[in-house]
Specification:
globular, 0% strand, 251 residues, 9 helices, mainly alpha
């Protein structure tokens, strides 16, 4: 019998069938990240065009579009790949012993490639100009904001997973993201694939190299903090053997 991941049902954040070909699971991660970045970029461009300079409206539209798209994509693809679309989730699962290294590398590569392609497609379809990054000015507040955003997101993801609440995970992720995007000054990218892809995006979501190069380490730091918090909140000494068996089934 195929071992089940710690999330029990395997419908979100852990794939339902870890014996499925890795190429197929990684492909789904790439497509999902592409569609997510496509929506993020396109929503920002559309809101910017229709808002007549109202930045608050642009932020609200972006928050709703991002969270809605992510919930839908996790529900659609979660059973195939786990529905990560974020290297932080994939790498933290590897660090926790729930995913093998070759699977982690394949997922992360697909996520970055998909995100960049999504940004390019959206920018090509909806904007004829060149790269127009957001007006964010790099400072310590933005860095701390991005750390908090990533920490909170990973706590929600892994808290739902380890609580056996995988079916509610997509909605919890969406709720956190819409709140964090509206609340934090960094706009809460909380995803290295999205932050790097934003280098190729036009409109409000676009980032400059100096901001993206700081956001990504901040997100990684926040994810590690979250892993510590989750490890304390949800210790799994009795499940370590099960996790190891699950790891052996991953390709």
């Amino acid at each position: 019998m195929t071992a089940q991941p710690p999330s029990e049902s395997g419908s979100c954040f852990f794939e339902r069938n870890p014996n499925l070909e890795l190429s197929r699971r990684a492909f789904v991660e790439g497509v999902g990240t592409l569609l997510l970045m496509l929506i993020i970029t396109a929503a920002g461009l559309t809101a910017q065009r229709l808002s007549a300079g109202n930045n608050q409206l642009v932020l609200l539209v972006s928050a709703l579009a991002t969270s809605g798209a992510l919930v839908g994509l996790i529900l659609a693809f979660g059973s195939v790949s786990g529905g990560h679309f974020n290297p932080l989730i994939t790498v933290l699962q590897w660090l926790a012993g729930d995913r093998k290294l070759n699977c982690t590398i394949a997922y992360v590569f697909a996520q970055f490639a998909g995100g960049i392609l999504g940004a390019l497609i959206a920018s090509r379809l909806l904007d004829s100009g060149g790269h127009t990054p957001s007006s964010l000015t790099l400072n310590s507040t933005l860095v701390f904001s991005e750390i908090l955003a990533a920490t909170g997101l990973m706590i929600v993801v892994f808290g739902c997973s380890r609580s056996g609440l995988s079916l509610t995970g997509p909605f919890a992720v969406g709720a956190w993201l819409v709140s964090a995007i509206l609340a934090f000054p960094s706009a809460s990218y909380a995803n290295p694939a999205i932050a790097v892809s934003a280098l190729f995006a036009t409109g409000p979501v676009g980032l400059t190299w100096d901001i993206a190069s700081v956001y990504v380490p901040a997100q990684i730091g926040g994810a590690l903090v979250a892993l510590l918090v989750v490890s304390v909140a949800f210790p799994r000494p009795a499940q370590l053997g099960g996790s190891a068996r699950y790891e052996e089934t991953l390709k």
